[in-house]
Amino acid sequence: MENNVVGIGLSIAGVVDKQGKFLFSPNIPSFKGLNIKNELKKRFKIKVCQENDANCFAIAEHTYGAGKNRKSMVGLIVGTGIGGGIILEHKLYKGLHGFAGEFGHSIIDPSGPKCSCGLNGDFESLCSGHNIVKRYYISGGKIKNADPQKIF
To answer: Is 21 helix (H, G, I), strand (E, B) or coil?
Structure first.
């Protein structure tokens, strides 16, 4: 049987350097320093591309979705965390250190709750899906048949 796989694409939340090493992943802190890209290359002996999940979302939207035929665009993802991807002149823009689309870690209220990244009152600590639910429970909210212990 012939193997037609030419590469592996890996998309994970966090900031990865050009060699594929995780520099920062607030939602998966145990990934810091890990180089999944190299491990996959060694194991499968094919090309591996690794990129931040929000950047992949922006590339896909620019290629196939709402940003198609646009020279520049910004995509915003709200889920476990808050991330974004920036396309400028048809190219992914990552900024000097790869943090250009990390909108979730912009400070909104310095006296706000602590984020998993260590910042207080950033966009993610206030508005990500998980943190909205957490604040709802803290303020006395209840959801029928839900166990808060299983959520947090």
So the answer is: coil
SS3 content of the chain, % helix, strand, coil (to 5): 30, 25, 45
Please count the other Cβ atoms lying within 10 Å of the Cβ belonging to residue 28.
14
Convert the pLDDT of each residue in 53-106 to its tens digit: 999 999 999 999 999 999 999 999 998 889 999 999 999 999 887 789 889 989
Contact 32, 26 (CB under 8 A): no
User: What six digits make up the tokens of 148?
Assistant: 């808060």
122, 108 contact by CB (below 8 A) = yes
Q: Are 73 and 61 in contact (CB under 8 A)?
A: yes
pLDDT (tens digit per residue) in 96-148: 877 898 899 899 999 999 988 889 999 999 999 888 888 888 888 877 766 66
- Whole-structure pTM over 0.85, yes or no? no
Within a 10 A sphere around the Cβ of 122, how many other Cβ atoms? 26
In 3D space, the residue among 103, 130, 135 whose CA is nearest the CA of residue 119 turns out to be: 103
